[in-house]
Amino acid sequence: MRTEPVVAPPRLVEHLLAWVGRWPPPSDGLTVVGNPRNAEPGWDGAVHPVTGVADERGAGVVGVPPAASAALVGRRWEVDELSAVLPATLGRPDLGVYQGVFRWTTDPTPLPDVGRWLPADDPAVPDWLRPFGGQVLVVLDGDAGYVAGLGLKRHGPASWEISVGTAEAARGRGLARRLVAQAARRVLALGAVPTYLHDPANLASARVADAAGFPDRGWAVFGAFPTAP
Fold this sequence. Notes:
This protein has two domains: 10-105, no CATH class; 116-213, Aminopeptidase. Helix content is 20%, strand content 29%. The protein has four helices and ten strands. The chain has helices spanning 10-19, 79-89, 175-189, 203-212, and strands at 30-34, 51-54, 60-64, 95-104, 116-119, 135-140, 146-156, 159-166, 193-198, 220-226. The protein has a ten-stranded mixed beta sheet with strand order 1-3-2-10-4-9-8-7-6-5. The longest helix is centred in the C-terminal third of the chain and has 15 residues, at 175-189. The radius of gyration is 18 Å and the shape is globular. The termini are far apart. The relative contact order is 0.19.
């Protein structure tokens, strides 16, 4: 039975237009576009030369710096084929290309709040959350101090990406899913769409996303990271 295609909310489309450089995809397979955003500092002050998203059909757009796009535009790419040529084409043989799961929500699960919003430079905030800036969401547990936290990657006014972590001793208590749902409500209240990205093999992260109201619609995200020498 044929299913209806997934329709992205307008604010998510606005985000993708800026983040990957074009949306919706013009055809099946992956289309590469030159996107000025991929040559500029991102949410963390670093340049992210590859940002891509594909929908449930496998049709997607991958943004790269305009100066590197000439050799890649104008044709349809398969994932493995594009991943193999991107590092050399970008002049970055140190890069590894990855594919993850791309999720979003406009209706987070109504789980009870569990965290407190604190400035990222608050002494109670662990080091891994400080680069997110602004306010971060943390769970503090008496003498144990920090046990779980969440930061927001502020990609632009239309969409913020959620990143969550729980101290090993506090896992299994449902803290991460409650933090994600709580943060998603705040992002939506501010007029943006919350997104949640994870490795396909990270089943714990997938369970958190499902429980917080971020369904897996079959969408994928593409990026690149420096590999170890």
